């Protein structure tokens, strides 16, 4: 903290000393004034205060170091209707590479309707001026420190004369605290081939995220050809797809004829998927008002294809078994040989209802075992059936003849249990085992719960009758004491069928990591941890679904007495604005998933996006940053009664 304070004071002192020593020139001594006008609508609407707030391609015109603050490809096109029949078009893009971030941009300016006169003052007719600028930039990220530079080729065509030249930019951005950054840049350093200087300026910027949905940006600008001025504004995220912006700058070159609102700007921004559209309005009094429209695309990585959740299954046949998986509303059946001493020459697979009636048949005559069979939940006539109410049978032909398996054992849904890092006994301690399939074909069963590492038996359930649809473990051991909730467990279900066949189903109980929080009076508060996301992405991976499902189970147990807040987080790569945006999108994605699992719309689910303000750990290692790209579900429930425990 002391180093941050000292660095901030050093920057402020350098600004004050430079303000006294900087040689100011007269207005109009610089060339290519219009081509130094920045092009991105978002920061124009915020009063042009972008030195510490720019990101991605915006850095080409505010601070080249900001190119590295957006680590993906992004592109923006814009058009600006300026004063006195002047039009400015802008293109900018940046893309990240393993060696840094590259930026490429261009500005085209045209002014028409200019009246020409000869030396004697006689009119010669109207003419137009055309200016063009091409810029190439490079930036590199050192975790929270960003450095960048750019070179700019500028060409001016003024009536019958033409001049060109090269200008350079250098800049630095330091994100010295989550949500707060400082920037400094020297822009447009250079001269034309005729020796006329470009409009060089030194910029110092400050950007801060306040609350959870607002950015503030301020710049102190020292131009070589005019007075020092201030510029800045605010950006307010009303929703994920809509934002409002406003700003003001004190100068230079804002004459009183432009009206009382001269120097102010306002705009709106829209975003959907990875596309965005921004608009800016600048009042100009007696001159025509300035309108600026930008649209573009910010590329983000797409998550890998979800991995289906496997359901433990062991059939009666010892030489061939079929695993089942639920995936996107479908059932995937995967045959696997338990021995490799036989070759299958034909295969028939039948799905049956609970009464033994065939619902759907898959025939693979004269073929080897298929790699998988996908059932969409319909019968032979294409009608939907309840997937929970089915069993299956199969037969296969080998060199030894036809082998038929007429019984398939029940399947077990994934068993979820909270696993508290530091205790938390009695908090949603129960774990439910739900069974599907031919339950009535089971003659007797025995369910053992043991420690995952110790194999010590914690609880036993057994009966000489059909398997029930659900068995609930209340979290107590054989002696009636609470089993430790910060331990992992596994289960083994031994079955004996009515035909005498035997099978064993076993798997780990899925431990949902949780952490206890400071309790309120009469309440228990805890968090379900680390629902993880890919970098700069808000798409929910299928393998994170178990944690969300457990939160839904708890909410449904306590109803509206349970208070839930879904908290989105991001890593420390990129700007505070981008991280806040993606963290809020992650929270909304989890909320939508919980609604889809059955939480009524009338029951409140709060969301919050914290960006990178609350990291689990701080490190440049990708493995640590990956854990910070997360959602946590904070739950508050009444202290459980004996019945609830």
Compile the SSE list and pairings.
Blueprint: H1 2-21, H2 41-45, H3 59-62, E1 74-81, E2 86-97, E3 100-117, E4 123-142, E5 145-158, E6 161-177, E7 180-192, E8 201-210, E9 214-223, E10 229-239, E11 242-249, E12 264-272, E13 275-282, E14 290-298, E15 309-311, E16 320-327, E17 330-337, E18 344-352, E19 358-364, E20 373-375, E21 391-398, E22 401-405, E23 411-412, E24 416-420, E25 431-436, E26 442-451, E27 457-463, E28 470-473, E29 489-497, E30 502-508, E31 510-516, E32 523-532, H4 545-558, E33 563-568, H5 576-596, E34 606-609, H6 622-628, E35 630-638
Parallel strand pairs: 24-31, 33-34
Antiparallel strand pairs: 1-2, 1-14, 2-3, 3-4, 4-5, 5-6, 6-7, 7-8, 8-9, 9-10, 10-11, 11-12, 12-13, 13-14, 15-16, 16-17, 17-20, 18-19, 18-21, 21-22, 23-25, 25-28, 26-27, 26-29, 29-30, 31-32, 32-35, 33-35
Q: What is the mean predicted local confidence, pLDDT? A: 77
Number of domains: 4
Give the CATH class of the largest domain.
Mainly Beta
The level of helicity is: 10-25%
Number of helices: 6
Give the termini distance in whole angstroms. Answer: 46 Å
Given the C-alpha coordinates, what overall shape results?
elongated
The largest β sheet comes out as: 14 strands, antiparallel, barrel
Strand order of the largest sheet: 1-2-3-4-5-6-7-8-9-10-11-12-13-14
The CATH fourth-level homologous superfamily of the largest domain: Outer membrane protein transport protein (OMPP1/FadL/TodX)
Helix/strand class: mainly beta
| CATH fold assignment of the largest domain | Porin
Overall radius of gyration? 33 Å
Strand element count? 35
Q: Note poorly predicted spans.
A: 1-6, 15-28, 301-318
The second-level CATH architecture of the largest domain is Beta Barrel
Question: What proportion of the residues form beta strands (DSSP E)?
Answer: over 45%
């Amino acid at each position: 903290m002391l180093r941050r304070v000292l660095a901030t004071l050093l920057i402020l002192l350098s600004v004050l000393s430079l303000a006294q020593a900087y040689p100011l020139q007269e207005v109009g001594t610089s060339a290519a004034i219009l081509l130094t006008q920045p092009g991105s609508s978002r920061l124009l609407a915020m009063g042009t205060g972008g030195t510490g707030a720019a990101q991605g391609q915006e850095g080409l015109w505010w601070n080249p170091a900001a190119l590295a603050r957006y680590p993906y490809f992004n592109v923006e096109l814009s058009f600006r209707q300026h004063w006195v029949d002047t039009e400015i078009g802008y293109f900018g893009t940046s893309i990240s590479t393993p060696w840094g971030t590259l930026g490429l941009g261009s500005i085209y300016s045209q002014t028409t309707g200019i009246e020409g006169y000869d030396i004697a003052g006689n009119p010669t007719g109207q003419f137009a001026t055309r200016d063009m600028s091409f810029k190439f930039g490079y930036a590199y990220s050192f975790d929270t420190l960003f450095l960048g530079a750019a070179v700019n080729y500028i060409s001016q065509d003024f009536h019958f004369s033409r001049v060109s030249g090269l200008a350079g930019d250098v800049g630095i951005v330091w994100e010295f605290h989550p949500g707060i950054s400082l920037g400094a840049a020297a822009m447009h350093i250079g001269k034309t081939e005729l020796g006329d200087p470009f409009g060089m300026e030194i910029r110092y910027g400050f950007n801060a995220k306040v609350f959870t949905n607002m950015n503030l940006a301020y710049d102190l600008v020292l131009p070589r050809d005019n007075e020092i001025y201030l510029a800045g504004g605010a950006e307010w995220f009303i929703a994920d797809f809509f934002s409002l912006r406003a700003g003001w700058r004190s100068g230079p070159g804002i004459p009183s004829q432009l009206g009382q609102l001269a120097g102010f700007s306002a705009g709106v921004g829209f975003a959907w998927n990875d596309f965005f559209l921004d608009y800016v309005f600048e009042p100009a009094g007696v001159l025509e008002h300035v309108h600026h429209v930008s649209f573009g695309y910010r590329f983000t990585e797409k998550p890998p294809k979800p991995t289906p959740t496997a359901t433990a299954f062991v059939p009666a046949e010892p030489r061939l078994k079929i695993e089942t998986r639920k995936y996107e509303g479908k059932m995937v059946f995967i045959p696997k040989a338990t021995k490799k001493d036989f070759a299958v020459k034909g295969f028939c697979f039948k799905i049956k209802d609970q009464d033994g009636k065939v619902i759907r048949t898959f025939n693979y005559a004269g073929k080897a075992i298929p790699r998988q069979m996908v059932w969409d939940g319909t019968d032979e006539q294409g009608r939907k059936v309840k997937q929970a109410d089915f069993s299956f049978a199969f037969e296969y032909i080998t060199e030894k003849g036809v082998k038929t398996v007429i019984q398939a054992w029940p399947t077990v849904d994934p068993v979820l249990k909270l696993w508290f890092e530091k205790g938390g006994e009695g908090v949603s301690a129960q774990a439910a085992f739900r069974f599907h399939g031919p339950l009535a074909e089971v003659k007797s069963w025995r369910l053992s719960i043991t420690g995952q590492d110790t194999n010590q038996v914690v609880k036993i359930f057994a009966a000489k009758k059909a398997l029930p649809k659900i068995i609930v473990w209340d979290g107590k051991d054989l002696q009636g004491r609470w089993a430790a909730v910060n331990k992992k467990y596994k289960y083994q279900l031994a079955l004996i069928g009515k035909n005498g066949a035997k099978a064993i189903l076993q798997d780990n109980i899925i431990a949902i990591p949780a952490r206890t929080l400071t309790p309120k009076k009469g309440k228990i508060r805890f968090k379900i941890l680390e629902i993880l996301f890919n970098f700069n992405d808000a798409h929910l991976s299928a393998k994170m679904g178990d944690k969300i499902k457990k939160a839904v189970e708890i909410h449904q147990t306590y109803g509206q007495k349970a208070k839930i807040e879904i908290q989105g987080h991001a890593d420390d790569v990129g700007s505070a604005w981008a991280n806040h945006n993606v963290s809020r999108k992650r929270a909304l994605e989890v909320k939508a998933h919980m609604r889809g699992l059955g939480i009524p719309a009338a029951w409140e689910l709060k969301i919050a996006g914290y960006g990178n303000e609350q990291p689990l750990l701080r490190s440049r290692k990708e493995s640590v940053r990956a854990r910070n790209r997360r959602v946590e579900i904070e739950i508050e429930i009444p202290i459980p009664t004996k019945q609830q425990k």
